[in-house]
Design goal:
With 515 residues, the protein is mainly alpha-helical. It is built from 22 helices and four strands. It starts with 15 loop residues before the first strand and ends in a 10-residue tail after the last helix. It holds the Pfam family AA_permease_2. GO terms for molecular function: transmembrane transporter activity.
């Protein structure tokens, strides 16, 4: 690999000393490589303010994951597929599988922190002859996947709200246009809130309604530090690659907070662990309390009926259902942030139509307003499919999840075929020989799942009941190929400085770090 041959080179440059490193033997001689240097090494300049601590990033990431709410949203479907056993243990299997896949991706994120995520990794490690095309396809798979998954989560809000209405008024018949109207209202409200989460960051704090998986949905607010020193390295163990370079140290209002949170920062993929620990106990309790499985499966909103059977109280069910709807809505705002920043990062490398227009950061709001608006417009148009066919809408969502997982698997497959030692520089998270297990498992698993999800739901197959996943995947790939023909020549990818990247990863472990 032409770029990789300079891995061992270390450039001569001035080291930035951290005046706030403290005193004592541990602080002596400590230094940090600024985030600006890391971004410049990857061909970009810093445009975002570092505003996330470790805990606030956990809340941000878990607000998107929200495993327990996701499990409730498809509980009725899982019951229909295989009964209570599938509804419960499928969550455990899914967590284990995604843990392996994202662990391999986390290693790449620790080596190449970037807002671009998967396409950025592919561009860096792919063969020179194919890197532009491979990165372009991966980038669009990631963007389209995130946009469509966000549409799926948006649809949960009207389903929960209208399902509650049907629970209170059994004669009320939910029409598809009802769902679309509430869907549009959800887009409007959540996109306004998501303007870089101004509502929680304007005063220097970061609050996350999605941090706690407890039914009470505790709000965690972490004061942001006033220090201006950027971290030497981003905590790849806590957040995904899209936010891996947006952390800065945090000061907490409790004594010895570093001692309390220290073990947390040593965990791998802690967001998945929180998701598992909140989803499984909740499902287990509700399954034990369930009295009539057929009623749950046939309900307009199975989660509402399940809560009613578990509590036996209409008032409690209404209160919990309203809370569940609020949580569904609260999980959308961070997804708009991710959708906007992913598209902005790709536009920065000229991978989108009108890159000069979309490569823009709003000076007042300090976030990519134009790409975020583009993602909301896409969601509004995409929602029209629900008016035509709910089956097609859901099939496309399934295809979107496949696209996302493909974008996770592609860089890992390239890593295995090209050689980990050749492609990866020194990095904070080094999986060693276990990295091969993760990198091999990811593409193999995605291949198997990609085939299985294209099977028909039932036999005989009709136009109304067919599985649209296969034609949708083909259609999406054709759209990406059309984009490549029309605008692919403009896509150049980042300009990597391997020497500076290695210097960043060789900085001492006692230098300034996140949190």
């Amino acid at each position: 690999m032409e770029q990789a041959k300079s891995h061992s080179e270390v450039v001569d440059r001035e080291v930035v000393y951290d005046s706030n490193a403290g005193s004592g033997p541990e602080a002596a001689g400590s230094f940090s490589i600024s985030d600006d240097d890391i971004l410049r090494a990857q061909g970009h300049k810093a445009v975002f303010k570092r505003s996330f601590s470790i805990v606030s990033s956990l809340g941000f990431a878990f607000n998107i994951t929200n495993a327990w709410t996701g499990a409730l949203s498809n509980f009725g479907q899982n019951l229909r597929y295989g009964g209570p056993q599938v509804a419960l243990f499928s969550v455990v299997v899914a967590c284990f599988v995604q843990w392996i896949i994202t662990l391999g991706l986390s290693e790449l994120a620790s080596a190449f922190p970037s807002s671009g995520g998967q396409y950025h990794f592919v561009y860096i490690i792919a063969p020179k002859k194919h890197k532009r095309f491979a990165a372009f396809v991966t980038g669009w798979m990631s963007i389209l996947g995130w946009w469509m998954v966000t549409c799926s989560d948006l649809s949960l809000v009207p389903k929960a709200a209208l399902g509650l209405g049907q629970f209170l008024h059994p004669d009320f018949e939910i029409k598809q246009w009802h769902v679309y109207c509430v869907y549009l209202a959800s887009i409007a409200v959540t996109s306004l809130i998501s303007s870089d989460l101004v509502w929680v960051q304007v005063d220097g704090t970061m609050a996350s309604p999605g941090f706690s998986g407890l039914p009470t949905r505790c709000i965690v607010s972490v004061p942001a530090t006033e220090r201006s020193i950027s971290p030497k390295k981003c905590d790849h163990r806590v957040v995904d690659s899209h936010r891996s370079c947006q952390l800065r140290p945090a000061s907490f209002s409790i004594p010895n907070s570093s001692w309390l949170l220290g073990p947390l920062t040593k965990l791998r993929n802690v967001t998945l662990a929180i998701g598992l620990c909140t989803a499984v106990p909740l499902l287990a309790v509700l399954i034990v309390a369930m009295k009539d499985m057929d009623e749950v499966m046939n309900a307009g909103m199975p989660a509402v009926e399940l809560l009613y059977q578990a509590t036996g109280s209409t008032r409690v069910t209404v209160a919990l259902s309203v809370l569940l709807t609020i949580v569904y809505a609260a999980g959308i705002s961070p997804q708009w942030v991710t959708c906007g920043r992913l598209a902005w990062a790709f536009a920065r490398d000229r991978g989108t139509p009108f890159p000069d227009f979309f490569d823009n950061i709003d000076e007042r709001l300090q976030f990519p307003l134009r790409t975020t608006i583009a993602s909301t417009v896409f969601a509004a148009i995409y929602g029209l499919i629900y008016l035509a066919s709910t089956t097609a809408f859901n099939s496309i969502i399934t295809s979107a999840v496949t696209l996302l997982n493909l974008s996770y698997a592609i860089p890992q497959a390239i890593l295995v075929t090209r050689g980990r030692a050749q492609c990866l520089p020194k990095r904070p998270l080094d999986l060693g020989r276990w990295g091969y297990i993760c990198n091999i498992f990811a593409p193999l698993w995605i291949t198997v799942v990609g085939v299985v999800i294209c099977f028909p739901y039932s036999l005989p197959v009709t136009v109304g009941s067919m599985n649209w996943s296969a034609p949708v995947l083909v259609g999406l790939f054709l759209i990406i190929l059309i984009f490549w023909v029309l605008i692919g020549d403009e896509f150049k990818g980042p300009d990597i400085d391997w020497g500076m990247l290695n210097l960043k990863n060789e900085a001492p472990s006692d230098a300034s770090t996140c949190g």
